[in-house]
Amino acid sequence: MAGKKPNKLNSFPFQIGVLSAQFCASRFRSVKSARLLAAGILFMCFVQKTVKSYISKMGYKYLLTLQINQCTFSKLNTKTKTMKQPLKKLLYVILLIVSINYTKKTMAQTGSTCASALSLTISPGSNTGWKSTSLDTIWYDFTAPNIICNFRFHTSKKNKKYVKDIKYGVCGTFDHPHLLSKENDTTYYLTFVNLTASNHYKLALTSGLSGNCTGCSNTSEYKIDFVSSTNAVSSICTASCSSICDFLCNGSFEQDGGTPTVSNQIHLACNWTTANNATPDFYKTSSSTMSIPINGNGCEDVRVIGTNSYAGFLSYDNPAHYEAIFSPLQNNLISGKTYNITFYLSLAEASDVNADNIGFAFANAYTPFPSTTLFSSHYATVPVNTSNVSKSGWTSFSYNYVANGNETDFLIGAIDGVPGVGTQSLSAFDCTTSGYAPSYYYLDDISIIETVTATASQTSICSGSTVTLTAGGGATTYT
User: Fold this and answer.
1) How far apart are CA 199 and CA 220, in angstroms?
2) What residue ranges define each of the domains in the chain, with the CATH number in brackets?
3) I need a surface site. Which of 148, 212, 284, 346 has the fewest CB within 10 A?
């Protein structure tokens, strides 16, 4: 009630003073309890001026809002005049230890500091539920189940503070990379990479008000969902093969099992998934977030009018993060036969340089590798020279490949080793509102066709005559 004076007997310092005095009285029977009680109250008045700053530095801000009595050392000093100075100092030391330990214990799970982080459960389908806090930053501790963790963060604006920054790492060091994508104004996806399985990490959510919000509450509401601990999600659908000639059934990415809503959803494109634990992307014209032509990395339109989709992958070395995708082949390749591989690349507008570690490869029974920089065993990588890939339009590539035999899968992306400084310096992005200086590529229309050499029965032919074409490699002969 306004104007009502606080009850000093219910104040925080007095309560601790009483507890401290009782603690000492039980151990120093020769000293009168009244003097010890006075010493306890006296000490807590002293704590108000000295420990208050310590508490503030530790982050226990809400302690400072308690009704701390405005008492002084001189006010109660007369009550302990007859106490011997060594005993008084000893009491101060004991009371200091008891009070600080009590304070730290009561604050042990507030989430107000890195050291007092709340526990975050990491298991399929787990979440915090909706939480409310008046802290500027709320801290959580989690144990990494893998080298990567995917989270979804929800925040509520509703005239309140909202989550505006998310970081993670270990206390004192928050330089671990993360990839943030936005589903809408209140939902974000964050991928933590380069973790060490079974190690503890801290996660910090910082909240603040947006603009001039004089009537807003000083609290924030949030919820954290644990999504997964791996990006190697199998494709959710199987593509139908429209051509018996093409060894890839969905090289155009037009067949899919849903519309992407965030980054790292290449598995929505039928037959495709990530080749390691990195986060390649799937784009679609009907998506509101992973859209075409405008998206978070650039503004490239579809290559063929009337189509709706393409893929995207990143090559970045600070920190190391190399993305690639793979798909099973319609049929195994045959040893000694030659296959023509064609595809198209476009450099995203957010990129600063063309990468020099782009390539493709084939593998036998490929499985994604649990790393953001390495890949599972595969046949020799064919390097792709991207020096002429521009941000305007699509650049075509064509390669012939002689099969080792029994190749079952095709990989493409940043798989050709560690990138250098890039093949050329490029102008800044021109159609996105933010960028981060890696090399990011859009990818579309991949095709793998067996090449056939045909020999004509005669070198010239007159109108109305016929000629026999004899195909090499056991292919069909036509007349």
Assistant:
1) 29
2) 8-106 (no CATH), 118-228 (2.60.120.380), 266-450 (2.60.120)
3) 212
